[in-house]
Amino acid sequence: MKRWFCAALFALSILLTGCTLDEVDGSSNSNSNPVIEAPVNGEIGVVTNVIDGDTIDVAIGGIQQRIRYIGMNTPERDEPCYSEARDANAGMVRGQTVTLVRDTSDTDRFGRLLRYVYVGNLFVNGALVEQGWAEAVEFPPNTSRAAQLRQLEQAAAAANIGCHPTGIFNDGTQTR
Question: What domain range is 18 assigned to?
Answer without folding.
Answer: 1-29
